[in-house]
Design goal:
It is a single chain. The chain has 146 residues and is mainly alpha-helical. The protein has 9 helices and no strands. Helix 2 runs antiparallel to helix 3, helix 5 crosses helix 7 and helix 8 packs antiparallel against helix 9. The longest helix has 18 residues.
C-alpha cells in the first residue's frame, strides 16, 4: 500500500499525519508517526516543531508519545540543534505532562551524543513529580545513558 501511494504520501506527509491524528483510533496515529518518520527524516522544516507539538498533545498516550519523542522530536532537534535549549525549556516548563515527558525522552538513541547536562537538568526539574509517566521517563533516559 505504501509503494502504491508513495508519491501522494511524500507530497502530503504533514497533512496526512494531522488528519490521521484527528481520528480516535490509535492505529491511525501509529500510521501517522510512521509516515512522519519515513518521509521527513532529513527534511524537517523549522516550523515543523508546531506539527510535533500537535502530535504529542493530540490523543496522547505513552506509546505514541515515546515514538514521537525519540524518532520525530529527537531527529528534528538533530536537524535544528540551535533550537534544543529553547524547545526543551518550553516543553519542560509546559503544564502538559506529555510535553514534559518528551523533553526527557528526546535523546533516547543519541548514545554518546547525549547531552548529559541537559538530560540531568530536565530530570532534576521533574524529580518531585508524582506522575508515573514522568518518573518512568527519567529512569529510562538515565538508564539508557548509563
Amino acid at each position: 500500500m505504501w509503494k502504491k501511494n508513495k508519491i501522494e504520501v511524500t507530497a502530503n506527509a504533514r497533512a496526512i499525519a494531522v488528519l490521521l491524528f484527528k481520528k480516535k483510533e490509535r492505529e491511525l496515529h501509529y500510521c501517522a508517526i510512521e509516515i512522519i518518520i519515513k518521509e521527513l527524516k532529513g527534511k524537517y522544516l523549522y516550523d515543523d516543531i508546531e506539527l510535533i507539538k500537535k502530535l504529542i498533545t493530540t490523543h496522547p498516550w505513552w506509546d505514541s508519545v515515546d515514538s514521537i519523542s525519540k524518532y520525530i522530536l529527537g531527529q528534528y532537534l538533530v536537524e535544528f540543534p540551535k533550537s534544543i535549549h529553547l524547545i526543551v525549556t518550553e516543553f519542560s516548563n509546559s503544564e502538559n505532562m506529555w510535553l514534559n515527558r518528551s523533553a526527557i525522552l528526546f535523546q533516547l538513541g543519541y548514545k554518546t551524543k547525549t547531552n548529559f547536562d541537559l538530560l540531568k537538568k530536565v530530570c532534576l526539574k521533574h524529580q518531585d513529580s508524582s506522575e508515573f509517566f514522568i518518573q518512568k521517563a527519567s529512569g529510562w533516559s538515565l538508564r539508557e545513558y548509563a
